[in-house]
């Protein structure tokens, strides 16, 4: 491991100020409107930089420091996306060529942006499934071609460019800050920010933030040196690094005041918070710093009146990922929780339980299928505060049963609903739409509970003004089924907005037999 030299790193940041603004401008600081908190929280908007992420600073600085002869050999880089865009931007600006190795799983939006920024100056090569695979291929190509490797983080010149972000914070006049949170992938940004800010504000505390299953820097500090993780979660793909850098490790060990590890759900909650307060949608790794702050704040580690800085480090995300983020995010100060609740089989039993839920708790997901048992186990996805959940726990205890928290269970995540269709008597499956407001679903179920028993239910909150659910009901007779069908259709425009019976093909797939029309 290379010994640290904070004076040298400080000088690299100082010198980088003369270069990086050839291709980009300073990004703004914004205060988050969070009146319910007793601290002031600010965000550094790196999502507003030229590549919608901070990486342009370090990559361009390293490239601009090279001589024309070095650049003429060709530049080589490995990246999961944002560093690649920075290299592409620099290659075009400096009139040189770059070959960029990216994992095959890199989101299309990041590949497309690399080509947009670099044009004919860049060539993308997709190799392997991880950043580490791409890195090995890039190093091998460098050795055979004589090109110059531009590291995404483990280089003091690259770190110097990243540190210009911290210089802008100091120059903004918004400081000093008491606590600063920075996402860690390789650790270059966190080290540079800590180096610069501690020089001007010696009392500032700087915390790195890593994903629970990406915490390579935390593992390195605990082990006394970089150590390779056996598994790396890639939900926050911009920070998915298997092994901390040899250079960045030393600086982070010396300069950081701690490392916070956050879950993917906490990151999603932070993304939602940024959307609700500033209408900003960062990529998951871009929201990690805010997630780290929230974890510390809720643990009582912040003092009233603290001025807190978090860095929104990027916003390059595949649009399709938004759906998954929305399902994992809480609302305001409330958090998502999935419970598997034992409920006796019978008419109205589920409705009876739902009526006992605290009014403040919102149902955002319901997965249920009847099985061969006297007790059924529907899964309820809930949004509530810790206080709300304490009340709910008391309700469940009063029923003499124990619910299981299944928030991380795979079958719940993939919405695998087990049921036994051979048990269904005179089944009726209907797609219903109801106003997405508290009590609307209960109004519908209360109207039919005397006729039907639930045998299947599949609902997930979508964020629209209407909720949509596939509801399966069974009856004691054909007459009861007919009466319920007529009652449901008459309810349209009232307790439900619309109702539509499933097609014959869908009915067959759900039950295994043809519907008697």
From TrEMBL:
InterPro entries: ACT-like_dom_sf, Ser/Thr_Dehydratase, TD_ACT-like, TD_ACT-like_sf, TrpB-like_PALP, TrpB-like_PALP_sf
Pathway as given in its UniProt record: Amino-acid biosynthesis; L-isoleucine biosynthesis; 2-oxobutanoate from L-threonine: step 1/1
Gene3D superfamilies to which the protein is assigned, alphabetical: 3.40.50.1100, Biosynthetic Threonine Deaminase, Domain 3
Assigned EC number: 4.3.1.19
Taxonomic superkingdom: Bacteria
Signal sequence region: none
Protein name in the entry: threonine ammonia-lyase
